[in-house]
Design goal:
This protein is mainly beta. 8% of the residues lie in helices and 26% in strands.
């Protein structure tokens, strides 16, 4: 199935070569967990601080569950942000 994958800030360099700005369309297997996608694109898990599916936060404990993504979903990931 195809989803939209967004990586922000310093993670943007990890997107596939077909990415435009911070967005790429990627194919993922049915039932893929979020952590399997995070690992496939070499996003260090400790840098996957804010993970959203269609704008809804997914906590660390739920990222190994399969079946959270559906065709056309948007998976967005932000690293931790420092500063004030």
């Amino acid at each position: 199935m195809q989803i939209t994958f967004k990586l922000y800030a310093t993670l943007g360099d990890l997107l596939p070569s077909n990415a435009v700005r911070n967005v790429a369309s990627i194919d993922v297997p049915e039932g893929a967990s979020l952590n399997s996608i995070i690992d496939k694109y070499h996003v260090p898990r400790e840098l996957a601080h804010l993970v959203l599916i269609n704008g809804v936060f997914v906590c660390d404990a739920d990222r190994d569950q399969s079946g959270m993504l559906k065709e056309g979903d948007v998976l967005a990931i932000w690293p931790p942000v420092a500063g004030g």
